[in-house]
Design goal:
The protein is mainly alpha-helical. It has 2 domains: 105 residues, Rossmann fold (3-Layer(aba) Sandwich); 67 residues. The chain is 48% helix and 9% strand. It is built from 8 helices and 5 strands; from the N terminus they run ββααααβαβααβα. The strands form 2 sheets. It has a 3-stranded parallel β-sheet with strand order 4-1-5, sandwiched between helices. Helix 1 crosses helix 4. The protein is globular, with a radius of gyration of 16 Å.
């Protein structure tokens, strides 16, 4: 029996996929790397620790990867996050989950500050049991670390008592790796 629903946030609850892609394109351009928007958009769903691996050579990531990620994070919060909007029906969905006796946990590859802001945008902070972010995991999606963190916060639940809802192949891959 399903006792909990673990939700991806970006692209599932909040309309941010294009915003993230735009911020990554701008950040990479700032560091001299021209990446097409469409190529970058295909990588969205992975966390910042994984996204560059599909775009830049390993030696570039080793040398400037952290600086690029930090710049992109600041840029996103400053110039893009205010444009994020919840998808229709998100609050009502979370109300229904709560009424049915199930638990809801957003689990995102975004950092904790962004997740807090997303809970406000979606208007679900009072309806969730917990939330996880990249700050709770060693690696982000497509690795299962964030899902493991979400399950840990749902003490006494097994993986087959939870369902994962996401919008990318990386969500499905993380779920498959988690078992």
């Amino acid at each position: 029996m399903i006792k909990a629903v673990v939700f991806d946030i970006d692209g599932t609850l909040i309309d941010t996929v294009d915003l993230h892609a735009e911020a990554w394109v701008e950040a990479l351009k700032h560091f001299g790397h021209e990446i097409a928007f469409q190529d970058l958009r295909l990588q969205i769903g992975k966390g910042g620790d994984q996204i560059l691996h599909g775009l830049l050579p390993p030696e570039v990531i080793e040398k400037t990867g952290d600086e690029i990620k930090d710049f992109r994070s600041s840029l996103f919060k400053r110039d893009y996050l205010h444009r994020a909007r919840t998808f229709p029906g998100v609050r009502e969905l979370f109300e229904r989950i709560r009424t049915s006796g199930q638990r809801a946990v957003p689990a995102s590859s975004s950092n904790a500050d962004e997740v807090e802001r997303y809970k406000e945008i979606a208007g679900i902070a009072d309806l969730i049991d917990s939330a996880t972010s990249s700050d709770d995991a060693e690696r982000s999606k497509p690795f299962p670390d964030i899902l493991q963190a979400a399950l840990a916060k749902l003490a006494a639940l097994t993986p087959d008592e939870a369902v994962v809802i996401g919008d990318t192949p990386y969500d499905a891959e993380a779920r498959a790796r988690r078992g």
